[in-house]
Amino acid sequence: MILVFGVVALLSRAEAATPAQTTLTICANQPIPAGYVITALSTTKACGGGLAAWNTMTLRAYAGLKSLTACAPLNVPSGYLITALSTTNACRGGQGALTAANTLTLTAYQGLKSIKVCAPLRNIPAGYIVTAQAATATCKGGQAGLVAWNTMTLTAYAGLASFSACMPLPTAPPGYVITAQTRIPTCSGASGPNAVTLKRL
């Protein structure tokens, strides 16, 4: 699981292989069944009571989906990355304190040669590396702090003889060495080197 915006949703830690139902509607303030994400928040008589802005959650099973939207905050399911942030009526009141967005687009990345994802991203998926940084409307509000970008391009590097990766890069990927520091337009940075050249051993 990947923690988004530093806020933990009520999600089960277990991953379900194949949920029995594609969608579920359940009352708030209970754990989300494994294999599901929240796709809408609402107020219903069936789940009446309480002072919250919503008391009902619509859930969707995500197994096998190439992409889907889900309400924030959430723990991103394994195999998915956030590729867009937005504000929707379906997820009203769902956003965390660190972002104006309340809806996330999740995209399955397995098998993709490259994918653009929203920052911040706590863990880069194994086999991928950051090859570009940019500010986009798609990921609006996703990057807090002093950096000027909110979107990263992740590239699968397996089989590449040589390529450039954005800094900072703590260590070279297994099987590669850093042969140069350079400056390229696709990586962020006010001055000085902003990328490294990697070469396969």
Q: How would you describe what is shown here?
A:
With 201 residues, the protein is an all-beta fold. The protein folds into 2 domains: 1-108, no CATH class; 110-201, no CATH class. It contains no helices and 14 strands. The protein has strands spanning 2-3, 23-27, 36-42, 56-61, 67-71, 75-76, 80-86, 103-108, 114-118, 128-134, 151-156, 162-166, 176-182, 195-200. The strands form 5 sheets. It has a 3-stranded antiparallel beta sheet with strand order 2-4-3, with no helix packed on it. The protein is elongated, with a radius of gyration of 19 Å. It starts with a strand and ends with a strand. The model is unreliable at 1-17 (pLDDT under 50). Keywords: Signal. Residues 1-16 form the signal peptide.
Q: Would you kindly provide a brief summary of this structure?
A:
It contains no helices and 14 strands. By secondary structure, the chain is mainly beta. It folds into 2 domains: 1-108, no CATH class; 110-201, no CATH class.
